[in-house]
Design brief:
Radius of gyration: 16 Å
Number of helices: 9
Structural class: alpha/beta
Shape: globular
Largest sheet: 7 strands, mixed
Length: 233
């Protein structure tokens, strides 16, 4: 059990200001995991995100063009497969996700209980979470359900864990923020066992500045509609 290889995929775009802190906060050991590899996907940043990540010992891949959060995540999942990961965690690189939640994310996979673990901010809503984000997440949960007929409490959470079987099964075709909803659809399509665990969110002035929920919501809906049109041809 302790020989399992965990790869933490961190899509990053212009995160030089915080990436060292985020990588430095990752645990060196987790129960049931023998090796932890941080994998940063630099999505054609204009700052020195890649240099900062590599100086912290992370494996870093760089896009020659900006592909968006979804595109960076796809690259990370594909790389993790080729690196023979047993478990993959996707994690935001702006410092919003608490590394202390990693153990609870990987435990159900280490114990072979499920194939996917979804970190949910809505299981224990923090008072620091803006009310408009709570409302917006619930709306996007409903939209995700309309498209894929599967209900989860936090469909837009980027903090997830996947088993080897899951990353070999899931096929993502969207490159924007709609990737989170599409992943929920892939869970249903491949009949992957999943669970949700509570996660906390670290709100700072910097992380709040990275969030544009209303604009993202429009892009998510448009991206999902385009996906449906492509798949119906």
């Amino acid at each position: 059990m302790s020989s399992k290889h965990l790869i933490i995929v961190l899509p990053a775009y212009n995160e030089a200001r915080v990436i060292s802190q985020v990588l430095g906060s990752l645990p060196k050991k987790l129960r049931g995991v023998g090796k932890i590899t941080p994998l940063v996907i630099d999505d054609n940043s204009s700052d020195n995100t890649r240099a900062m990540a590599e100086s912290c010992g992370a494996v870093c891949l760089r896009h020659s063009v900006n592909l968006g959060a979804g595109g960076a995540t796809i690259t990370g999942l594909e790389a993790a497969r080729s690196m023979n990961a047993d478990i993959v965690v996707t994690m935001d690189s702006d410092g919003q996700h608490d590394p202390n939640d990693l153990q609870s994310l990987v435990d159900p996979i280490v114990e072979k209980e499920v194939d996917v673990v979804l970190g949910s901010r809505m299981k224990q809503v923090s008072k620091a979470m803006p009310s408009h984000k709570v409302w917006g997440n619930n709306v996007l949960n409903g939209i995700t359900y309309l498209f894929f007929r599967i209900w989860v409490s936090d469909s837009q959470s980027g903090y997830k864990a996947f088993s080897r079987r899951a990353i070999e099964s899931i096929q993502i075709s969207t490159c924007g923020y709609e990737i989170c909803s599409e992943m929920i659809g892939e869970i249903k399509r491949h009949k992957l066992a999943f669970t949700e665990v509570p996660i906390s969110t670290i709100y700072t002035d910097y992380s709040k500045s990275k969030c544009q929920l209303s604009l993202n919501a429009v892009n998510i809906v448009l991206g999902l509609l385009l996906r449906q049109l492509r798949n119906s041809r």
